[in-house]
Amino acid sequence: MAIWTPQLTGRHGPKYLQIVEALAEDIASGVLPPGTRLPPHRELAYALGVSPNTTSRAYGEGVARALIQGEVGRGTFVRAPGGARPEGDPADMRRPTTGPIDLSRNLPCPGLAATTLAETLAALGRGGGLAALTDYQTETDLAHHADAAIAWLSRSGIAASRHEVIVTNGAQHGIFCALMAATRPGDLLLTEALTYAPIKAMAERLALKLASVPLDDEGLCADALDEICRSHAAKALYLTPTLQTPTTATMKPDRRARIAEIADRHDLVLIEDDVFGPLKPDRPQPIATLAPERTVYVTSTSKCLGPGLRVGFVRAAASLAKAIHNAVGLTCWMPAPLMVEIAARWIADGTAERLTDRQRAQAADRQAAAGALFADHDMRADPHGLHLWLKLPLDWSADAFKAEAAKRGVGIVDGAAFAVDPGLRPNAVRLCLSHEADKNRLTRGLETLQAMLGEIPADSSLVI
Ligand SMILES: Cc1ncc(COP(=O)(O)O)c(C=O)c1O
């Protein structure tokens, strides 16, 4: 096979810089895609009729400009555009690689989409159409993004038409817009007794009253919901039936059906947060499939593809969808079209499914490691989940455990942070397994906590 030979005709200046210029052009035009192996510098020198010194200097400059990179024993390769390092390189991630170990944030494994993103950005650059992506979008421009949303939702069993889908800046934005659309100040919002913490702040901002429904091992208790709805005129219920935060519970089909039936009877809007759902292929059908007229289904690409994309998808019955669409307009006009375009391409060409599979595999691997360490403890987890819920022995209070963990360099969240009722203080902590980029750091953090479980806390006399 012919080696890459830069075209130097018509170029001026030092030879090595001419080579770098040609290299940059060929990378930008796609002649040299990311990952291409360049010829050894001696071979290139021979082909160009220059000294090996010149090609070696050119490659050195190419590395300095982040166009190429040398890999020991393998050769010199074209880097991803923008100077992105190879996928998974901790230096390319903002997550800490030294200092305290962070098990407090429920994010997916980092870096798995970096190389793919580089390729997609290069393809976008080559393909044109970027002017449209930097403009305000019309309904027509947005149609293929809505189609991507429909395709993504259909994988969760959700059928949607273009009038029923709304693209948002992630699930958080979708939930907030759903609350803006479905409630008025003073309305009563119900949640699970332990819930995704930002819901409390959202309710406060929207001047909603908040009341919580008890949980059991399967999630929100249907009987308790029915009882609360009989005595209070609740407007909406926010819940996470799959891989619940923080308890990891996934609700079975009959419980989902009961909740749909209770919501119907009490005219309750359901806001079903399925942000983790796509990670769990064996989960039951969303409640939205059982009560499509009254359920706002919210999901996103954050846990499967990468939270930095900020792409969320919402499905609601057309009348509510319009109000949610207006709330999106009010809060941000529209999600950044470039980001949605990236997600849309990944959904259409199978990349999204592949990246989701990789997150699942990482989650399973990390859950297995944690499961082995905490096998003798009271713990709830799911092989597809990104976190676990660790119940503490009586010697430890959750606050004391969290404080001691922090002293030993491990960040975790105590159960009370998720409680709607300030009087509810579950003696448990949430451990997030995927935020740390380096699995060794995760293992060290988990081992620190496991050792603590076997100790009597210094101030145990205070614990009752
Ligand atoms: C339960 C739950 N819902 C929603 C979100 C928000 O997700 P997004 O990044 O798509 O806004 C998160 C993020 O951690 C979450 O844990």
Assess the beta-strand content as a share of residues: 5-15%
CATH topology assignment of the largest domain: Aspartate Aminotransferase, domain 2
Listed once per kind, the bound small molecules are: pyridoxal-5'-phosphate
Low-confidence stretches: none
- Class of the largest domain, according to the CATH hierarchy? Alpha Beta
What structural category do the secondary elements indicate? Answer: alpha/beta
CATH architecture of the largest domain: 3-Layer(aba) Sandwich
Placed side by side, the strands forming the largest sheet appear as 5-13-12-11-10-6-7
Whole-number total of structural domains: 3
Keywords:
single chain; 464 residues; Arc Repressor Mutant, subunit A; Aspartate Aminotransferase, domain 1; Aspartate Aminotransferase, domain 2; 3 domains; seven-stranded mixed sheet
Characterization of the model:
- With 464 residues, the chain is α/β, with parallel strands linked by helices.
- The chain folds into 3 domains: 15-79, Arc Repressor Mutant, subunit A (Orthogonal Bundle), CATH 1.10.10.10; 101-112 and 352-462, Alpha-Beta Complex (Aspartate Aminotransferase, domain 1); 135-349, Type I PLP-dependent aspartate aminotransferase-like (Major domain) (Aspartate Aminotransferase, domain 2), CATH 3.40.640.10.
- The chain contains 15 helices and 18 strands.
- A 7-stranded mixed sheet has the order 5-13-12-11-10-6-7, with helices on both faces. The protein has a 4-stranded antiparallel sheet with strand order 14-15-18-17, with helices on one face.
- A hairpin with a 6-residue loop joins β14 (379-380) and β15.
- The termini are far apart.
- 44% of the residues are buried.
- It binds pyridoxal-5'-phosphate.
- Pyridoxal-5'-phosphate is lined by residues 106, 170-172, 196, 240, 245, 273, 275, 300, 302, 307, 312.
